[in-house]
Design a protein that fits this description.
Blueprint (H helix, E strand, L loop, with lengths): L12 H5 L3 H14 L3 H19 L14 E2 L12 E8 L3 E9 L6 E9 L9 H19 L9 E7 L3 E2 L7 E2 L17 H10 L4 E7 L1 H12 L3 E7 L3 E8 L16 E5 L16 H9 L7 H6 L1 H18 L21 H9 L6 H11 L5 H33 L4 E6 L1 H5 L3 H12 L10 E5 L3 H18 L9 H7 L1
Parallel strand pairs: 2-5, 5-8, 9-12, 12-13
Antiparallel strand pairs: 1-11, 2-3, 3-4, 6-7, 9-10, 10-11
Length: 496
């Protein structure tokens, strides 16, 4: 430990007692706004269960605007651990693009992975469809040229394409984008198949790649985690966006009854529950949530995501501070230039994470963070208030996120299981896992002496290994003659 820099103590009551009354009142206002108690959590979960069930019906539910939720993914089984073969995986996330080559089957449940990461340029997110598909193809070509420089016999490489945006899939090798999320807003893509135009670019570029499966990262997380952990029942993403996937029985999915599948056939469902409560029935939205929704590219959509996902937590924090500056002059940052703080989305979730991780009782690192990022000099009471605000926003996100997991457990009557979770918020935000676990205990009424029955664990690589596994599972069933949910039969058979 460095000398002269006191470490943070467990209790901060002494520090809070030194905060002036007006700032204590402000903290109380924030606590009232952001605290979600057990009663409210249970109310949210009950509504969530109703929406999950309705989303599987022919009519669809409110996890939508005018779009279909609870997407059937055409993945009909968990992996056995005996899958074999070499597969490419392309992961198009909200910030980065990743290309992987995965070799399955060296040993049961084992795999080797080679990967490269590419930054998704910001201008691409509001550019053209042609620019997007061309960039993805260029990255694939760079990857192949680098890792297979002297190999001339590559052909028909099967690709699992992780496309982490809401898509309706009538086939596993096909997907119609419902709506852009995560800050994307590219014209001419929504309402259309994303596989066909991408394949056209691949063909024009002479790339020996065939898309065997279009995969959502959440479904990939579910399958990849189940590959190494047989107790996995749910896959979740807590990152730039939020979502979950789980296995449903075909007999409980009225909207695919026409396929006449055996009722006990497992079908992976991509919930797309970032859009939960778009009708604003149950979620406790604050004025800051309303502003974020109003100013977003898609007002009225992704309500749950805008309250819980990494893309928005820093902005909620920023709006709360600006609200004080504008409506309670002199309470914080008196006489200072707050122009940097006024820039929308100038603070990301890592800003809150750093505040919560500050180990010093005097919040020295938080003070430096405000100085270097915003050119704002802070007093100790201001730091205490900012610390509490960050805790409240982070805690609300974790507790609300637990509602989706609890809803799936209640719907499926799951009393105990493992949940595979991925995403930057789950992996990096301090206390997120513990706060979510506490919320689950409250919602599911576990006794104090009971261990966690539903344990949320760090997932395997869903966007890479999961996509490869789903491609492998698809080709395996095509080889066995099961063509349900496959569009290009001839192509799939050529890959097997």
């Amino acid at each position: 430990m460095e000398s002269g820099r006191p470490r943070r103590k467990q209790s901060r009551k002494g520090s809070m007692a030194e905060v002036p009354k007006d700032l204590q009142n402000q903290i109380k206002e924030f606590e009232d706004l952001f605290t979600v108690d057990c009663t409210k959590l249970k109310q949210i979960v009950d509504h969530f269960v109703h929406e999950l069930e309705k989303g599987l019906s022919v009519e669809g539910g409110n996890i939508k605007l005018t779009l279909q939720p609870m997407n059937v993914t055409w993945v009909f089984s968990f992996p056995t651990g005996n899958e074999k073969g070499t597969y490419l995986a392309l992961d198009m996330g909200g910030t980065n693009l990743r290309v992987c080559e995965i070799v399955l089957g060296e040993e049961k449940g084992g795999f080797d992975i080679t990967q490269s990461k590419y930054r998704l340029p910001e201008e691409l997110k509001t550019g053209t469809a042609e620019g997007l598909w061309g960039y993805l193809a260029d990255c694939l070509q760079q990857f192949i040229e680098y890792h297979h420089e002297n190999e001339e016999c590559l052909s028909n490489l099967p690709l699992g394409f992780t496309f982490s945006y809401p898509a309706t899939q009538e086939y596993i090798d096909h997907g119609v984008l419902q709506r852009w999320t995560k800050g994307f807003d590219i014209d001419g893509v929504e309402g259309r198949d994303v596989v066909a135009p991408f394949e056209e670019v691949l063909v024009k570029g002479g790339l020996p790649i065939k898309i065997a499966a279009l995969v959502n990262d959440t479904t990939g997380t579910l399958i990849a985690s189940a590959y190494t952990d047989p107790e996995i029942r749910i896959g979740c993403i807590f990152g730039t966006g939020v979502n979950a996937a789980y296995m449903e029985d075909a007999g409980s999915i009225p909207k695919i009854a026409h396929l006449k599948l055996p009722p006990d056939t497992p079908v992976a469902i991509n919930c797309e529950y970032g859009a939960f409560d778009n009708e604003h029935v149950v979620l406790p939205r604050t004025p800051y949530d309303l502003i974020i929704d109003r100013d977003s590219p898609r007002p009225g959509q992704q309500t749950f995501e805008k309250m819980t996902a990494g893309l928005y937590l820093g902005e909620i924090f920023r709006l709360a501070l600006i609200d004080i500056v504008d409506h309670k002059p002199g309470l914080i940052f008196e006489g200072q230039d707050v122009s940097k703080l006024r820039k929308p989305f100038s603070l990301d979730t890592s800003f809150l994470s750093a505040i919560e991780e500050d180990p010093y009782e005097n919040l020295l690192e938080t003070r430096e963070l405000f100085e270097t990022t915003l050119d704002i000099m802070t007093t100790q009471p201001e730091l205490e208030m900012c610390r509490r605000l960050a805790e409240l926003i982070g805690t609300r996100a974790a507790r609300l996120s637990a509602c989706g997991v609890a809803a799936i457990c209640k719907k499926k009557n799951i009393e105990s299981c493992h949940v595979g979770a991925d995403g930057s918020v789950f992996n990096k935000y301090p206390h997120f896992k513990a706060r979510g676990a506490q919320a689950l205990r409250e919602i599911l009424d576990w006794a104090d002496h009971e261990v966690d029955k539903v344990d949320i664990l760090r997932a395997e690589d869903g966007s890479g290994v999961g996509a490869a596994l789903i491609a492998a599972l698809t080709l395996k069933r095509v080889k066995e003659g099961n063509l349900v949910g496959v569009r290009d039969h001839a192509l799939m058979k050529s890959l097997t």
